[in-house]
Amino acid sequence: MGLGWWLVGLICFITIVGIPWGKACFVIGQFCFFPFGKEAISRRDLTEKTDVGTGFWGSVGWWLAIGHVISALALFITIIGIPFGIQHLKFAKIALFPIGQTIVDKEVASESFMTQSLQGMVFAVTGAGGGIGRALALGLAKEGCSLAISDRDEVGLAQTVDLLKNQYPQTKVLSQGLDVTDEAGQQAWLARILAEYNQVDGVINNAGIALMGNFDEVEKEKFDKVVAVNLTAPINITRLFLPELKKRPWAAICNISSLFGLIAPVGNAAYAVAKFGLRGFNEVLRQELMPTNVKVISVHPGGIKTNIALNAEAASNYTEQQRVKLATEFGKALVTTPEKAASIIIEGIKEGKPKVIVGTDAKLADKGCLLALMDRDTDGLLTTQQMILAQQSSAVVLIDVFDITDETSQKLWLDHVIQKFGFVDALINNAGIGLFGQFADVSREQFEKVIAINLQAPIELTRLFLPMLKTRPWALVCNVSSLYGLIPPFAQSAYAVSKFGLRGFTEVLRQELMPTKVSVCCVHPGGVKTAIAGKAEFASKVAKHDMQQMVQASDKMLLSTPESAAKAIIAGIEKQKSRLIVGLDAKAMDFLSRLLPVTMLT
């Protein structure tokens, strides 16, 4: 912790004190780079008969040298030191608060997850009469736990007990029929657990029910029942068990929320209230219990092959046939087995993860899984689609092969997106091309082609998509500029015009849309290992040999992988940053462009 504070203190001192002092040196020294500066010095030297090498010029040289050294030192420590310091501050920063000091003292502030053995622990599981609850009971028995299981379905609960006895005959099992909304029943269950085991190390609130129907169709009694079972009961059971859990050297509270605690499902208002509410409760409780030995795990399963849909109630205006039909249709989306879900949940408990996403569908919903992709490269687009589906089989990917500069194609693409999804939440303008050659050597057609793809197309697509984006509860326009939208590159005038222009458009648009729900983000990637240089056009006067040298020189400056760049961009979008600098090279040049005159960077 001390190292983190020391390093950040040093960084702050050099950055706050050193950089301005270094900049002051430049204010004195930089004008010697310009003709008028030299003339002023010459006139002064002639008047004062001062030798340029040893008089004022010499002083300026020393000031300039000092400025260089301090600024370089500050830059080095800022770029290299801050990430290291921040890593230490993950431990140190919360020491500013009394609760944080306790966390640090207990050495639980680390973000790394250490696996905890569950051997010999006692776990209480609700809803263990089938589905995920039954699979959790069997999985915990395999880990060597003693069990206290409950369910209102006593027949299903007895079947779970039989399975445990057959597969894990050495496991101690205490079962009890329980309506989780009955507080007296909750207290009796805890009393039996303590009488039997004299301890409890973990509680898994898994019991849950579903309800079909729009909010204005569902009766109050049915709505309240879902909230009571899925939200109030886990909260009350947590409150009841918590004092006992705090007595243990390690303990866990695991509350099963849902995919529908991440995204809102139409026709499931009560279920969403309960599962979003449980998610919020988990996240607050986890922070409150950080100074203690009790871990809090929020679980979000996607479509799990259980009977929750078939057993769901429906609004009274639904016929039984309609209810069964809806449940059957919903059942087609259930792709993960209870056993697989339980295995993931138990691993999350052992690692003390604050959030466990179960199933590809839930993971995609957690990040966003509806994709509409467009490119002029048919083969490349198909390959991208295949790679996404190979990794995430439940992803929904719409692809269209269009010329991005064609206004008719732009409108067709938007129509396809709306027909497929019914809405669009984000537009990422990423397509771009390069062009090598000095301005005088580049043809007008080549120059305008770069402007059309890199600048005009993003502007027109933004204009086209913006009315739809404004109707969404949250929306995004993300325009990918470049490092060369921060500093001008030699012999790439068209590219610089397009990327500086896109930067200006994005920054103005962000201000204009501030009163709306549309966020605007401008991305400036540095050297990313893509094929843009290899596919770039060249001025007609550039020789083939020179073309190869330009491409090879450009490739040497590509430091970041597309995957790391995409990860950084997505993280920035999630944090709703208005400006993203991607890659150390871009960050360094952005820093220097703020500190130094542009003439020193080109």
TrEMBL record:
Pfam families: adh_short, YccF
Keywords: Membrane, Oxidoreductase, Transmembrane, Transmembrane helix
GO CC annotations on file: membrane
InterPro entries: KR_dom, NAD(P)-bd_dom_sf, Sc_DH/Rdtase_CS, SDR_fam, YccF
Residue ranges the record marks as coiled coil: none
Residues in Ketoreductase domain copies: 121-307
GO molecular function, one term: oxidoreductase activity
Residues that span the membrane, as ranges: 6-34, 55-86
GO biological process: lipid metabolic process
Chain's role: Putative oxidoreductase.
NCBIfam families in the cross-refs: PRK11770.1-4
Family: Belongs to the short-chain dehydrogenases/reductases (SDR) family.
Protein name: Ketoreductase domain-containing protein
Organism: Darwinula stevensoni
Biological classification of the source: Eukaryota, Metazoa, Ecdysozoa, Arthropoda, Crustacea
